[in-house]
Design the sequence.
């Protein structure tokens, strides 16, 4: 991402976080509430994503994506509903950062992040199903364990 | 006056702008107008008809919470109201808790299920209100007269569905009661409502199948005595392979000094079995004269989550076996709800156990005066006393491959006030221990999210939500101190925390306290130890390293 864009995001970070947060919680607030441990962790993840954008730190951005996707995946949201938070981010960023080439780069990066978030969301959904299966398997294994002696 | 007092304008602003508890389309509604939605992942499967038939419980049938018709029995309203009336008369605590709440909301944000789901009906005050609103409609005289003004409502199938949903999202952990200025124990309300729901066949298979098994064979899995023995013998073999020491547990031996009872999860559950190996090593180390019963082969008691009568019946085997075997007292393993039943109910339910003696440690001579009534001692107290009196040869370096934190189990911490003993033991058997945040431990501990009989696979999404506050506290201590091991003294925790950690805090494994004791014990005649009880390499004890101090 270009230096100008990164600088613009850094300078207006608080405003962007606040606007993005407002839009996201408007949409998800019946399941995730601000001011609760889960809400706070969610906001932490959002901030990591934005800071990852601002600093160009891909690993920080991915950590943020994992944090929010993990929370979203335990709630009964459709993937499209859950990931609409990145559409919100696009709206907020395009309103607050310079346009032109910077804007196009910004859109490209958000789209990339959205796809990463989709992968992460689905991986976490799969993890839940795997945990269910493994609990059953483990119980069966322990029942059979005594038979070996 | 404090300079930190908020200004009136700030309070008005907060009141007007802060989102209400009811969200989205229901922001302007009354709380009881929010609809219910049963869907995959937010309910436990109901008990199978054959389970109910075996127990003689009412209304056995096939049904699911997602069905429109729950096939309630004829006259179900009368059954429920009579059940409530009977319990209000029988248990004064229920009446007191229903009458005395002043809706202050101090409990609201203390419930891990409310924090995890954001669902207002999971606030303890509102969860209890689900019942109070019906109670007010029919019972207290003044409020009967003031019907319509007192927030009362009639008992309908929808209300019953609400009870079924939300009283199985309470894990009876009692965290809310710590913060209630009146000491209202919402867990007691949950216990009673679940009992009333059983009267019309609304239940949970994950609770009732173990109850039926326990009723039949003495343990939750329905394991027959010979298989129970086989499993422990397989652990004896594992101990011999790892340490070169042959331990010799005995079963149903009359005349032993002590009867040892632990949850069957320690005999059949991974990672509980490693805790069992720890017990076996400890008892061998001190030459304890003990026996294990294959009939009282379960410390846990899912009767607590079913009905008081069932809890009493399942608990009775402990004293029966102690009498039959002629032991002096009972030693209990690591468990949560087992200790709630033992500590708070056993003596008055099935006691007095005047055929037993006041427990005295045969090794240190310490008299456990706190167990004078029940005649049953918690293993953490027993081991702490052994360590305090320098009766154990321990090498805490053998746990140097683990960086630990400690999860207080709700029932042991809040139910019996045991905070220090497990920490004392843990600090003596390992070199790296870090506490989680103050408001998440000891009496303020957060539940694992799956206690009280809702540890079902099909309930995984809800369990992950309810367990989030605990997992988040672990994440923070992990980030700060590189903790990788969560130690606990509860069999349910050992079953529920591994998936919780794997989902929210990958990289943290779950251990029983006595597993770490077993790792650290220097046994007489042992071979060179290089692996812990899980056959994981011990740091600094690899082949070729010197393991002697």
Sequence:
């Amino acid at each position: 991402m270009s230096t100008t864009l990164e600088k613009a995001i850094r300078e207006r970070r608080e405003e962007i976080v606040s606007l993005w947060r407002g839009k996201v919680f408007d949409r998800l607030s019946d399941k995730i509430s601000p001011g609760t441990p889960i809400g706070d962790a969610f906001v932490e993840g959002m901030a990591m994503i934005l800071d990852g954008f601002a600093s160009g730190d891909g690993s920080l951005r991915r950590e943020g994506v994992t944090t929010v996707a993990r929370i979203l995946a335990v709630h009964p949201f459709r993937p499209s509903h859950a990931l609409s938070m990145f559409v919100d981010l696009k709206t907020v960023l395009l309103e607050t950062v310079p346009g032109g080439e910077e804007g196009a780069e910004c859109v490209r990066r958000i789209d990339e992040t959205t796809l990463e978030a989709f992968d992460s969301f689905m991986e976490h959904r799969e993890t839940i199903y795997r945990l269910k299966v493994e609990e059953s398997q483990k119980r069966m294994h322990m029942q059979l364990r005594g038979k070996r002696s | 006056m404090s300079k930190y007092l908020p200004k009136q304008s700030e309070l008005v602003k907060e009141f007007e702008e802060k989102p209400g508890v009811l969200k989205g389309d229901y922001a302007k509604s009354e709380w009881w107008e929010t609809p219910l939605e049963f869907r995959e992942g937010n309910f436990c499967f109901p008990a199978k008809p054959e389970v109910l038939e075996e127990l003689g419980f009412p209304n056995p049938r096939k049904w699911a919470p997602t069905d429109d018709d729950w096939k309630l029995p004829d006259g179900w309203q009368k059954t429920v109201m009579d059940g409530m009336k009977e319990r209000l008369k029988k248990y004064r605590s229920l009446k007191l808790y229903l009458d005395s709440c002043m809706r202050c909301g101090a409990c609201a944000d203390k419930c891990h299920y409310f924090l995890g789901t954001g669902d207002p009906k999971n606030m303890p005050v509102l969860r209890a209100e689900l019942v109070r609103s019906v109670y007010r409609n029919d019972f207290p005289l003044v409020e009967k007269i003031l019907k319509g003004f007192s927030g009362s409502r009639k008992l309908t199938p929808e209300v019953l569905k609400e009870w079924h949903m939300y009283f199985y999202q309470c894990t009876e952990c009692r965290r809310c009661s710590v913060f209630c200025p009146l000491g209202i124990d919402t867990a007691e309300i949950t216990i009673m409502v679940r009992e009333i729901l059983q009267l019309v066949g609304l239940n949970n298979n994950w609770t009732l199948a173990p109850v039926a098994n326990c009723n039949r064979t003495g343990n939750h899995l329905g394991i027959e005595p010979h298989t129970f023995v086989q499993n422990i013998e397989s652990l004896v073999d594992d101990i011999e392979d790892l340490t070169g020491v042959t331990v010799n547990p005995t079963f149903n031996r009359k005349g032993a000094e002590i009867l040892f009872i632990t949850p069957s999860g320690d005999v059949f559950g991974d990672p509980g079995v490693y805790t069992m190996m720890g017990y076996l090593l400890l008892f061998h180390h001190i030459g304890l004269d003990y026996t294990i019963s294959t009939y009282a082969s379960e410390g846990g008691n899912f009767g607590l989550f079913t009905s008081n009568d069932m809890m009493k019946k399942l608990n009775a085997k402990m004293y029966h076996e102690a009498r039959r075997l002629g032991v002096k007292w009972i030693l209990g393993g690591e468990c949560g709800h087992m200790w709630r039943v033992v500590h708070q109910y056993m003596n008055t339910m099935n006691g007095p156990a005047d055929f037993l003696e006041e427990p005295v440690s045969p090794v240190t001579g310490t008299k456990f005066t706190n167990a004078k009534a029940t005649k049953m001692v918690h293993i953490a107290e027993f081991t702490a006393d052994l360590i305090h009196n320098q009766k154990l040869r321990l090498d805490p370096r053998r746990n140097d491959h683990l960086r630990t934190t400690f999860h207080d189990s709700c029932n042991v911490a809040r139910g019996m006030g045991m905070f220090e003993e497990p920490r004392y033991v843990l600090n003596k058997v390992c070199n790296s221990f870090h506490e989680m945040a103050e408001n998440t431990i000891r009496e303020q501990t957060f539940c694992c999210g799956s206690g009280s009989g809702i540890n079902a696979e099909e309930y995984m999404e809800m369990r992950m939500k309810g367990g989030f506050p605990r997992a988040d506290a672990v994440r923070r201590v992990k980030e700060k101190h590189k903790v990788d091991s969560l130690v606990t003294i509860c069999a349910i925790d050992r079953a529920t925390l591994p998936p919780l950690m794997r989902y929210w805090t990958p990289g943290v494994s779950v251990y029983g306290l006595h597993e770490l004791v077993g790792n650290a014990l220097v046994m007489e005649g042992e071979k060179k130890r290089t692996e812990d009880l899980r056959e994981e390499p011990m740091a600094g004890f690899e082949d070729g390293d010197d393991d002697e101090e």
